[in-house]
Amino acid sequence: MKTRVLPSNITKKKEAALIRQLGESIRYQRKICGLTQLAVALEAGLSKSYLCDVEKGRRNPSFAIICRIAKTLGVEPSDLVSGIKVTPIQK
Asked: For position 34, which CATH number holds?
């Protein structure tokens, strides 16, 4: 069975902007909690360099990783993505 891929209006540039916004949100929540990157990374089972890359928008974390980071920060995963602006798909 072939998988059908639907067209999307999210370009690579827009996708990169979304990933940067996610990283900024994670950094903001981490700083509110008063935690270092190392503390969050260790608690979430990540390397500090990976978390740094996520916060800078250089990595696109999976939903599972977002959930682990959110749990470490004491927030819901939706709290990390709630402020991200996504352009609606044009028909």
From this structure: 1.10.260.40
